Each structure stands twice: as C-alpha cells, then as structure tokens.
Amino acid sequence: QNCRGTMVSIQHGAKRPLAARTSFAITIAVFIATACLFTVFRSCELDSNAVSSYLETTSAPDEAASSSVSGSTKNAALESERRVEAGSASSALSASSFVQRDFYSLAKRTGTDKVQGTTNLPECRESGGTGKKCSYPGRDNMNCKVFGHFYDSIYQRWLGPMSTDDADPYQFLEIGFYNGKGFEAYTEFLPRAELHSMEISCLPSGPRNEGKWPWGNFAEKHKWYQSLRDKQRLHCGDASSFKFLSSIWTTKMRRPDAPPLKVVIDDGSHEAPHMVASVFFWFPRITPGGFLVVEDIEHQNSAARKFLTEFLPQIQRDVHYCGGEGSEGDSLRFPELHSFLKGVHCEMNVCLFQRNDRAAEEPDEEGSAVPPHALDASKFVAKI
C-alpha cells in the first residue's frame, strides 16, 4: 500500500513534457519497485530468523533423555519421554505443557490390543477383507474382520485434555491389570495421574472357593510388577467384591493427601455382572467431571452380551429422563446412577459414562448393590 501510494503521488506531481514525464516516471517506478522487493525479502529474512530462534529455544532435550513417538494415523507428531518408574506422576515432554499426548502411538508401542484394530484395519481393507490382517473374514462389518480394538479415538477425545503436563493431579484406576500392557500405555499417556490397578490373578495360588486363584499369576511377568506392589498401586483381589473394593478404596486410595478419583476403566473379566458391579460401585465415587469406561462390550462375547443388550438401553434411557408433568409412563431405571450421570458415549465395544457436577458420594453396600433388572429389563418394576 505504501509503494502504491508513492506511485500515485508521483503520477499526480508537477507537469513536465510528456516524454520527460514518462521517462522520469518509469525510472522512479523501477526504483520504488526494487526498494519494495528488498523490504519484502528483508522482512521474510527477519521472520525466518525469528522462527529459527523460537525453534531453538523450544527444541527437544538431548535425544538420550527422550524418545520421539509419532501416530501414523494422526496429523500431528507428539514427543513423549518414556517413564521408567511405573506410577510416576510426572513425565518430560519436549512440546509445550498444554500439548496433548497421542494415545495411539503410546499404546501401539506397548503392544496392548486397545489399538490393534486401528493398526490392522488399513491393510485388511486394502485386501478387500480377505488378507492376512483380516482375522475374521466371514464378518460383515469391516471393522469386525480385524483383531484388536479402536479405543484410541475415544480415549484421545475424552482423556486427551488430561494428558498434558499442566493438568491438575488426579487418580486413575484400571480394573484388570492382566499383562500390564494397557496400564503401561495409560502410565505414559497420563503423566499427572496417580495410577492404580486391580488384578485377580495375583491372589495367592489355590481354589477359588477359598478366595484364591488357581490359574497362574499373569501380572507378575510385567517388569513393573514388584515395584507397583511395593508402592501399593497394584491391588490383588476380586474387583466385583464390595468388601475388596471398599477396603482398597478407603485404605489405599481415599487418603487425605490423595488427588480426586477422576477416571475408572473396567477391563477385567468382561462378564456382564462384573461390569455393572463396577458401574454401581465406582460411578458415584468419581469426582465431578470424571469418567468411567467399560471396555470389551462385544455381542460376540456371550458373557458380556447382557451389558450391551439389557443394561445399556436402560441407562441411556435414563439420560433423557425428565419425569413429572407430561412424562406419564416414563420411570427412572437407575436412580442410584441418574443423579450423577451427564451422558453415555459409546464407540465400537466400549462405552464411557460421563459424570455431572454433583459432588462424589460414598454409598454403603446396599446403595452400591446391582438391582435385579440391571441385566434383565423385564424385571423392572416402576415405583409409584
């Protein structure tokens, strides 16, 4: 604009003979154009130097102290330093403190099946649903033809904001440690969390009717096993037992110095009665704005099927409950949960239950019990 203004003022300057005016105008125009181009290039050079300086001041630490991870299905590359000590509440991240970590990249590296569906699907799709990555070629839904899950999207969406270095501290509980690959992914993804896990297989060896476990300790094979046990972060017991849950909650987790419980993930037995037991015990205890996630809600798994076909339709109905005038015939199915419930969000084989802003409560054993109609809607009796 400045260059254009200068040209206009010259063109409207003092009158001279036509040839002289034309020659003079051309000379001045060339001079001004050259000056403008120099200014533009100089500005670009300064901007480039400024960017280089900024990148130097925000560059990653020495490569020996950090590792770079990149999500192949994501648009942005995030860098994450591997956390050596399990359960640590901090992790160095070379990017800014408000940048979210990439769950897919971290989970893929630990080898958990939570993201293997995302990894296997592209090759299966390219083969037309019949290639070596298509473990179940006879299924109709392409997503069901591959082994593994697609949980990276739901975790990134809902837990991503909690994965930054500047997130407030909180507690995280996983039900079902098993081989520790999932817990390892959560540990790297959520640096500000105080992480806990529950596992039944690390009970003393012996008959189940004696409260023991006869099929071997799956958890002890993980490199963090003893460290987690020593730190009282891995708790051995039956996570469907009110007595066990209440004991761990009151003595190991709900400490005066503990951050609030914000996330509970059920990845345990994958049996519907145990799944609903987790919901009824933990959901009221989660801090406002927190989440409870139930994984492996698969119709193909007959043990989990009633959670999908009986419990979910009822609690999703409760999300929309109003009651009172104009609501004749509409009754709350689960008043024990409804007063804490903001929403239910599901993706393939996984559902997330979102807490509202009501303060957490401590129901007793009766208040935490699963009602008879939870897994059989035909048993529901409306309260008059």
| Unreliable runs | 1-22, 35-95
- CA distance, first residue to last residue: 77 Å
Outline: globular
Radius of gyration: 30 Å
| Integer average pLDDT | 82
CATH superfamily of the largest domain: Vaccinia Virus protein VP39
Number of domains: 3
What class do helices, strands and sheet pairing give? alpha/beta
- Assign the CATH class of the largest domain: Alpha Beta
Number of helices: 11
Provide the helix percentage: 25-40%
CATH architecture of the largest domain: 3-Layer(aba) Sandwich
* Beta fraction: 5-15%
Q: What's the count of strands?
A: 9
**Named CATH topology of the largest domain:** Rossmann fold
Order of helices and strands: HHEEHHHEHEHEHEHEHHEE
- Spatially, the strands of the biggest sheet line up as 5-4-3-6-7-9-8
Question: Could you walk me through the main structural features you see in this protein, from its secondary elements to its overall organization?
Answer:
This is Methyltransferase domain-containing protein. The chain crosses the membrane at residues 21-41. Keywords: Membrane, Transmembrane, Transmembrane helix. The model is unreliable at 1-22 and 35-95 (pLDDT under 50). The protein has eleven helices and nine strands. It has helices spanning 2-11, 18-57, 103-110, 116-126, 152-159, 181-189, 225-230, 242-253, 272-282, 305-319, 335-338, and strands at residues 68-69, 78-79, 170-175, 193-199, 234-236, 261-266, 291-295, 341-347, 350-355. It is globular. It has a seven-stranded mixed sheet, with helices on both faces. It starts with a helix and ends in a 29-residue tail after the last strand. It folds into three domains: 2-57; 89-109 and 150-379, Vaccinia Virus protein VP39 (Rossmann fold), CATH 3.40.50.150; 116-148, no CATH class. It is an alpha/beta fold.
